[in-house]
Amino acid sequence: MSTQAALHLQDVTYSINKKRILTDISLGFGAGLFHGVLGPNGAGKTTLLKIITGQLQAAGEVCWQGRPLSDYAPQELARHVAVVNQINDSVFSLTAKQVVTMGLLPHKNLLSRYTRDDRTQVLKALDDVGLADKAEQHFSALSGGEQQRCLIARALVQGAPLLVLDEPVNHLDVYYQHQILHLLHSLCQQQGKTVVVSLHDLNLAAAYCDNLVLMKDGLVAASGASSGVLESTLLSDIFRVPCTVHHSATQTARIEFNPPFAEFQKASTQVKHDS
Ligand SMILES: Nc1ncnc2c1ncn2[C@@H]1O[C@H](COP(=O)(O)OP(=O)(O)OP(=O)(O)O)[C@@H](O)[C@H]1O
């Protein structure tokens, strides 16, 4: 674990109704790096992201820039940490531009007015996520992918040094998957932001993430530089699908899955016989 980490977890354990969800997680997330959190369904990725953003309180310690997260007042925390949760059912009766403007709230007080600079920032963020032409459209009238990009734009204008996004590209078409991950990666490189995302697409993780955390059953199975974590035997074991990782000196790793179709066939035949 890096002692230089901007975000630091020590022995983090989390249970719900006596059911253990995360066990003894100790991790460091360095500044200026793009971190991916990977793992099968139910591994604990969302729970981990909610803990590192202060949405859930766990046993153990979570420190951001050397201070426990619990020491930050809510508005102060919002200036430090921007969160994009998985899309939920909340329907905003606001336009895309108004939703993005909400990202400026942590920097305002009751008497603050929005400046020309604020408006420029909001329009730039909408443009950055490809929504410049939808600025006046109601959030509820945006497609799922557009809503997701709108919430990412809101996180961008928040200007926080730590951005945490739960499955930020799962509603996006291929173009925007790459556009958003490229944008987040450049925020790390050019502005020194710490970005943490959960992802299901291992090839996207290989292409964009500097570091990876691989989770299973509430435990960290591996963490570190992406090239080290993306290893055939480990991934085959964790995801229960045989795979081959092709490493190359000049290109990012490419993961090829070889699903055990015969096994799936046997299982579905078994279901038919049993019913
Ligand atoms: N409120 C809750 N009550 C009971 N169990 C919960 C609750 N929230 C999460 N869990 C359980 O905790 C485990 C981890 O859930 P979590 O959402 O963190 O997984 P995940 O890795 O994000 O999964 P996915 O890839 O499916 O989004 C799961 O087994 C889930 O059922």
TrEMBL record:
Keyword Protein biosynthesis attributed: no
Keywords, ordered alphabetically: ATP-binding, Nucleotide-binding, Translocase, Transport
SUPFAM superfamilies: P-loop containing nucleoside triphosphate hydrolases (SSF52540)
CDD domains named in the record: ABC_Iron-Siderophores_B12_Hemin (cd03214)
Domain ABC transporter: 7-242
PANTHER family in UniProt: HEMIN IMPORT ATP-BINDING PROTEIN HMUV
Molecular functions (GO terms): ATP binding; ATP hydrolysis activity
Highest rank taxon of the organism: Bacteria
Family: Belongs to the ABC transporter superfamily.
Xref: InterPro entries: AAA+_ATPase, ABC_transporter-like_ATP-bd, P-loop_NTPase
Organism, as annotated: Alteromonas confluentis
Protein's UniProt name: ABC transporter domain-containing protein
Key word Nucleotide-binding present: yes
Function comment: Part of the ABC transporter complex HmuTUV involved in hemin import. Responsible for energy coupling to the transport system.
